Structure formats: structure tokens, C-alpha cells
TrEMBL record:
This protein's record includes keyword Membrane: no
Name under which the protein is recorded: Uncharacterized protein
ANK repeat residue numbers: 93-118, 129-154, 163-195, 197-229, 231-263, 265-297, 298-330, 331-356, 363-383
Keyword Nucleotidyltransferase annotated: no
PANTHER family: ANK_REP_REGION DOMAIN-CONTAINING PROTEIN, ANKYRIN REPEAT, PH AND SEC7 DOMAIN CONTAINING PROTEIN SECG-RELATED
Record's keyword terms, sorted: ANK repeat, Repeat
Classification via Pfam families: Ank_2 (PF12796), Ank_4 (PF13637)
């Protein structure tokens, strides 16, 4: 609060401002501005008291205040707020002081700003889809700030306007366990999805291998089989693709379906584990009952993907589980042909030992022709030897 004292006298009007404590802060002449702070006013005076909400704006002082909020300079923030400083000023990018303090993890500054009347859910000016202070605190992993903001009135499930991203999703994505825990305790909904691609907090935690966060979300009731609308991927697909074995195990324990196919390519988690050579993930999926020969779009199987990329151990594991070595997708690219063309010698041997035979499929060359064309001499020799043994009736 500030008080303004006006002395009768037309152009010689004087103003005096006091802080809420009663201390005299300034005395000046409205015309000459040359009076000192300790000048004495001699009665009689005609006083006019004016209630001012905040200290008058000052570009340099406001900038200094925002820097103090960014860096966590508690004393400077407190000094300015006692004037009182408007807590809802913004920087050139339209970010409020509370944004800056929350992003950088300064709980004392956040508390002072909230007590001074800072808006708890502001968005940057002139922008449609920007983060609130709670989004920033969740993204950067500041649990104390998250607790202060929600306790101060911030909506725990606030979604960005265009994307639908919530604080819980950001915390789960980045593996901030304590922030996730706090938001769930504040009753954040674990299965709230983004608008455009329908990704859930569990999707992003699984994709990034945040085991403890995955466990916490599952305990809070998150569904392990919800699929993203744009591609149909589930949490198990994402964990398998990225080789997060412990997350895969946890999802399977939560009854995730191992043979769910994506909407875009028809791949199962096993396809993704095979393609990226995540051997232990692949074995875990097979042990959990995943089919060893599921067909994706155009008939592509995990064995075909593993053979194409030369993942010898994956090929061996799939063959041991009964994968068909002679399987061929609609384009005629059998596992043997793909392995031979790419020069994957050991894969070629495994496939031949499993009963695969080199033959021309559709309008393509044989595996032998392609290996010779690519200069894979050892593969050529193995294929020729395999052809001879096949003619003699040997396996």
C-alpha cells in the first residue's frame, strides 16, 4: 500500500508515499522534483490519501525483479514485493515471474510470489499453447515447487490448449518420480492423453525406461494396453523397441498383451525387439507367450527383420522357438534372401541349417545371385555348399 499526500497550491503540489509499515519512502515536488526525503512539511496541509495497488512500473526495476526470480535471489525478491512490487509482471517473452521461479526450482521465491498475489496458472501473453508454471516445474523436476503451486491453487491436470500435454505427462516423460508421486497424490488422472497423438504418461515413461515411474503409474491405475490413436502403439511396443527389459517385464506382469499389433505397420512388440536386436526383451516376450511368427503388414515377420539386419542371436532364438525359416512376405524377400544380399554369413548358415532353401521367388533373383552380385564370397560358398547338400538329400 502507498499513500499520496497532496498540498494545496496548484502547480506546487507535493506528494509523499509511505510503505505499509509507515516509513517515508519519498517526498517530491510534482513540478520540480527537487525535494529531499528528509524535507519537513509544515502544516496546515490538505492531505489526500490515495490507495495504490502496487509500486509504479519501472522498466529497469522490473527487469531486476525478474532476474531475481530467475536466479532465486530471495532477499531482492522480498525487498521488491514489500514496496509492493506487482508479482504479475512479464519479461519480453511474455513469461511471468512465477514461470521463471518455477522453471528454475526456487520454492521460497515461488511461495513469496503466490503470497503476494501471483496468478497460479498464468500462460505467456500472446501465445496460445504455452506452459503454466506447474508444467515447467513438472518438466524440470522440482517437487517442492509443484507442491506449492498446487496447494496455492494451480490445477494439477491443466492441459496445454493445443496439445493437451499435462504436468503429469511431462514429469513421467522425464522420469521425475517425486513429481509424479506428488501429482498423483493430488489426484492427477494417470490416463489423460495428449490431443494429437493420444500418448499417455505410461507411454512416455515406458519409452524412456523410467521403471519406478512406470510402476507408480500402474499402481495408480494406468492401463498398460491403451494405444496411441495415431499409430496404435502401446507402452509395451515402446519399451520393447527401446530395449527396456525391466519395464517390459513389469508391463507383462501387469497383464499387457504381448501380441498387440500397431495400427500403422501391424507390428507386435516382438517385431520391434527383433528389429533392434534386443535379445533379452525378445526372449522375455516369447516366454510370456508371444507368437514367434506374427505377421505385420505385407507378411513381415520378426525373423525377416532380424535376418535383414544380421542379428544372429535373435535369429537363433526365433528359430529355436519354431519360427518358420521359409516364411516369405508378399514381396518375396525371404529371410535367406535378405541375409545373403546383406552378407550376413552366420545368419545364412543358421537359416540353411534350419531347412531354408535358396529358390527364386516371384520376379527376384535367388539368394546366391544377390550374394554374388554384392561380392559376398563366403556367403556364395555357403549357399553353393547348401545347394549341393540339398541335392544329395542331406540337411
Amino acid at each position: 500500500m502507498a499513500l499520496e499526500a497532496v498540498v494545496d497550491g496548484g502547480t506546487n503540489a507535493l506528494r509523499v508515499c509511505w510503505a505499509g509499515s509507515g516509513e517515508i519512502l519519498a517526498v517530491w515536488s510534482a513540478e520540480e522534483f527537487d525535494m529531499k526525503d528528509d524535507d519537513i512539511l509544515v502544516p496546515p496541509l490538505d492531505l489526500k490519501l490515495v490507495m495504490l495497488a502496487h509500486w509504479p512500473p519501472d522498466q529497469e526495476e522490473d527487469k531486476s525483479f525478474l532476474v531475481a526470480c530467475t536466479t532465486g535471489h530471495v532477499e531482492e525478491v522480498q525487498r521488491r514485493l514489500l514496496l509492493p512490487q506487482d508479482p504479475n509482471i512479464t519479461n519480453e517473452e511474455g513469461r511471468y515471474a512465477l514461470h521463471l521461479a518455477s522453471e528454475n526450482g526456487h520454492p521460497l521465491v515461488v511461495q513469496m510470489l503466490l503470497e503476494a498475489g501471483a496468478l497460479h496458472d498464468p500462460t505467456a501473453q500472446d501465445q496460445e499453447d504455452v506452459a503454466t508454471p506447474l508444467h515447467l516445474a513438472a518438466y524440470y523436476g522440482h517437487p517442492q515447487v509443484v507442491n506449492l503451486l498446487v496447494a496455492g491453487g494451480a490445477f494439477h491436470d491443466q492441459a496445454m490448449t493445443d496439445t493437451g500435454v499435462t504436468p503429469l505427462l511431462l514429469a513421467a516423460q522425464n522420469g521425475h518420480l517425486e513429481v509424479v508421486r506428488s501429482l498423483l497424490e493430488f489426484r492427477a488422472v494417470p490416463d489423460t492423453a495428449t490431443k494429437q497423438d493420444c500418448h499417455y504418461p505410461l507411454h512416455l515413461a515406458s519409452q524412456n525406461g523410467h521403471l519406478d515411474v512406470v510402476n507408480l503409474l500402474l499402481q495408480a491405475g494406468a492401463s498398460c494396453d491403451k494405444a496411441a490413436t495415431d499409430d496404435g502403439w502401446t507402452s509395451l511396443h515402446l519399451a520393447a523397441q527401446n530395449g527396456h527389459l525391466e519395464v517390459v517385464k513389469l508391463l507383462l506382469e501387469a497383464r499387457a498383451l504381448p501380441d498387440t499389433k500397431t495400427a500403422d505397420t501391424g507390428q507386435t512388440p516382438l517385431h520391434l525387439a527383433a528389429q533392434h536386436s534386443h535379445l533379452e526383451v525378445l526372449r522375455t516376450l516369447l516366454e510370456a507367450g508371444a507368437s514367434c511368427d506374427p505377421q505385420a503388414t505385407h507378411g513381415v515377420t520378426p525373423l525377416i527383420l532380424a535376418a535383414r539386419h544380421g542379428h544372429t542371436d535373435v535369429v537363433r532364438s526365433l528359430l529355436d522357438k519354431g519360427a518358420d525359416p521359409a516364411t516369405s512376405p508378399t514381396d518375396g524377400q525371404s529371410p535367406l534372401l535378405l541375409a545373403a544380399e546383406s552378407g550376413h554369413l552366420e545368419v545364412v548358415r543358421l537359416l540353411l541349417e534350419a531347412g531354408s532353401r535358396d529358390q527364386k521367388e516371384m520376379d527376384r533373383s535367388t539368394a546366391l545371385h544377390l550374394a554374388a552380385l554384392k561380392g559376398h564370397t563366403e556367403v556364395v560358398e555357403v549357399l553353393q555348399d547348401g545347394a549341393k547338400r540339398a541335392k544329395r538329400g542331406h540337411p
